[in-house]
Specification:
two-stranded parallel ribbon; single chain; eight-stranded mixed sheet; 12 strands; disordered C terminus; alpha/beta; globular; 8 helices
Length: about 290
């Protein structure tokens, strides 16, 4: 990461509440072609979340503790605050001297921008202001929130505006919290009604909806220079498994999340038009946290 920070823009996308099993099934079945084209080997990596609900998980993720590979570690991290005795800080880790990754990248010259989704990013009260308050610039509107059937389209449009408004020399760290997977999501399933409620199937339909528009986000963030992208879930959610519904609980479907990182090639780079994932895919062990 020491060769990435400073030379690349950086994109972090959290697909809020996305379950690993649903994400893996859709990739295998060809139902999310735009995401699958970017995933190393066309597959999500199975990882464990650092928190069972949005606020806890994002406090950890934005401190550099990305979801951990679901195998015995320790696993070297991509980003880490300088901390004596850290067992997951390795030679390839980008180390910062601030309390969190956002301020660390800001100190390194990045414009840090948050496009929020779920309520913890809505800035409508003190709690909803903590996470977006980490950034130089933050955006949230009701159209970005969980009740909106077109939330991701609205978020992508804002991302395009942010990128277009930056001076060419300005490095960007863009964080997008995607709310579309979070309940309510019944409206993403064709012919469904509110009375049908949210289901594993509507959760999958929401991911298909995100996939239809994610290409625009990747095109915008890769339009200025190469962009290192991390796309993952912050936690999963239960739809009746073992009697559980929702998250903020210790079930396998909550703790297991999909993860990928890759490079979006900048303009004029060989392979950019074909969606090359670049050299970062070779490091299959980086990015964990423990």
């Amino acid at each position: 990461m020491n060769g990435i920070v400073g030379s690349h823009d950086i994109l972090l996308v959290t697909l809020d509440t996305l379950r690993y099993d649903v994400a893996a099934e859709l990739a295998a079945d060809g139902r999310i072609p735009n995401l699958a084209a970017r995933l190393p080997g066309g597959q999500w990596e199975r990882r464990h979340t650092p928190g069972s609900f949005t606020y806890a998980a994002h406090q950890a993720i934005l401190a550099g503790f990305l979801p951990t590979p679901a195998s015995p570690g320790p696993h070297p991290r991509l980003f880490a605050a300088r901390f004596a005795g850290s067992e997951t800080t390795a030679d390839g880790t980008w180390v910062f001297d601030t309390p969190d990754l956002v301020s660390g990248l800001s100190a390194a010259g990045y414009r840090t921008v948050c496009i929020g989704g779920v309520g913890f990013f809505n800035k409508q009260g003190p709690l909803g202001s903590v996470l977006p308050g980490m950034f130089d610039e933050s955006h949230w509107e009701p159209e970005f929130g969980v009740p909106s059937p077109t939330s991701f389209e609205a978020q992508v449009a804002r991302a395009e505006e942010v990128v277009a408004g930056l001076p060419p020399e300005q490095r960007l760290f863009l964080f997008v919290n995607v709310s579309a997977l979070h309940q309510p999501n019944w409206f993403h399933l064709p012919a469904a009604t509110a009375g049908d409620g949210d289901t594993r199937e509507s959760h999958a339909a929401a991911l298909e909806y995100v996939d239809r528009h994610v290409g625009r986000l990747f095109a915008a963030t890769g339009s200025r220079r190469p962009c290192f992208a991390v796309v993952c879930s912050d936690h999963g959610t239960a739809y009746g498994e073992d009697g559980y519904t929702g998250h903020r609980l210790g079930h396998e479907v909550v703790w297991t999340v999909p993860y990928a990182h890759f490079v979006l090639d900048g303009p004029g780079t060989p392979g950019a038009a074909a969606g090359s994932t670049g050299t970062a895919d070779a490091d299959d062990t980086a990015g964990g946290a423990s």
